[in-house]
């Protein structure tokens, strides 16, 4: 029914309007901001990288990229929220080893499979760090730490970003390699864990990144080793694992990373649009310098390489879980 005096809208008229409506709908979709979900608290490593990348993605996409911190459940809440969003290319996720290769290894109800539910763009940045201890712990090297731990069994504690995070698993893997024990004290994120270490609430952390530098420099923390086979540029005076003289650390290394994904099922055109913008952003010299200033190394790896990394880390973590070494309660 139509208003008196108003000509009825015919089927032909509707068909004539359709192309314009579709074009308007497409134009509106292009004007919508993009959302970059960060499943971890603000200020942490993933968040710092995500915000730097978002600054370069926005002009490449021609639209704002809004960072949305969705925290909780070791990153699962943020990932699940992203996977519930429309698969239109406007929702991206910043991820890390905790999210891609730890959660699915330890929790059958994680709510996602990183090898099938993510369309990987690539790893944006990697970062080394140091093994650090509280300043008044009477050890000055990794060898001394091992001797101290064996002389005081069950007394040492270590901090992590939470139960079931990548740092929790990596710490247990490292302790196992060194043949020592320490009690796990979980915190909610890197900042809380590091503050606890500075305050002396825990004895050590197996991996701490750029925010640790001023505390090492002013003597409030002691860095025993860089967590790779090379020294870390931000603390070049600290020996690498390979330089500690401990056979267990000769080939051992741990480097975290931050990558970016789309939910799988994103239409090909929108996926290509985001991928092109991603490549443009990662080619930015300004982004590379900004990442380096934060203690990261720009990676700009492609999606296939990231997929292989996730698969390998998943297998590594599943073997560790199967060993019974990691306590998740």
TrEMBL record:
**Which keywords has UniProt assigned to this entry?**
Signal
Q: Key word Signal present in the record?
A: yes
* InterPro entries documented for this protein: BUG, Bug_dom1
Signal peptide (UniProt feature, chain positions): 1-29
* Signal is among the record's keywords: yes
| Family named by the database record | Belongs to the UPF0065 (bug) family.
Q: Which PANTHER family match?
A: BLR1237 PROTEIN, TRICARBOXYLATE-BINDING PROTEIN
Question: What name appears for this protein in its UniProt entry?
Answer: Tripartite tricarboxylate transporter substrate binding protein
Q: Which organism is it from?
A: Variovorax terrae
């Amino acid at each position: 029914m139509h208003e008196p005096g108003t000509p009825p809208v015919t089927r032909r008229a509707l068909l004539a309007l359709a192309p314009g409506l579709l074009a308007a709908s497409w134009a509106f979709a292009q004007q919508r901001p993009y959302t970059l979900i960060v499943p971890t608290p603000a200020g942490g490593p993933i968040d710092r990288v995500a915000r730097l990348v978002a600054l370069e993605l926005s002009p490449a996409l021609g639209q704002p990229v809004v960072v949305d911190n969705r925290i909780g459940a070791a990153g699962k809440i943020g990932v699940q929220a992203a996977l519930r969003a429309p698969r239109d290319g406007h929702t991206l996720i910043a991820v890390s080893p905790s999210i891609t290769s730890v959660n699915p290894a330890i929790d059958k109800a994680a709510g996602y499979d990183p090898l099938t539910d993510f369309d990987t763009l690539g790893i944006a940045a990697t970062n080394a760090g140091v093994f650090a201890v509280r300043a008044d712990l009477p050890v000055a090297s990794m060898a001394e730490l091992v001797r101290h731990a064996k002389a005081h069994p069950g007394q040492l504690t270590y901090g992590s970003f939470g139960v079931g995070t990548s740092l929790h698993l990596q710490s247990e893997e490292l302790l196992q390699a060194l043949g020592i024990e320490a009690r796990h004290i979980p915190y909610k994120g890197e900042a809380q864990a590091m503050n606890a270490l500075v305050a002396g609430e825990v004895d050590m952390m197996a991996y701490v990144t750029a925010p640790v530098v001023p505390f090492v420099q002013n003597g409030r923390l002691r860095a025993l080793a860089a967590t790779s086979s090379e020294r870390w540029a931000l603390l070049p005076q600290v020996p690498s694992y390979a330089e500690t003289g401990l056979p267990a650390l000769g080939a051992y290394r741990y480097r975290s990373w931050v990558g970016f994904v789309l939910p799988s099922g994103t239409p090909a055109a929108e996926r290509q649009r985001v991928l092109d913008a991603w490549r443009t952003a990662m080619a930015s010299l300004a982004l590379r310098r900004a990442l380096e200033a934060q203690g990261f190394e720009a990676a700009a790896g492609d999606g296939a390489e990231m997929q292989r990394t996730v698969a390998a880390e998943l297998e590594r973590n599943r073997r560790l879980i199967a060993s019974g070494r990691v306590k998740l309660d």
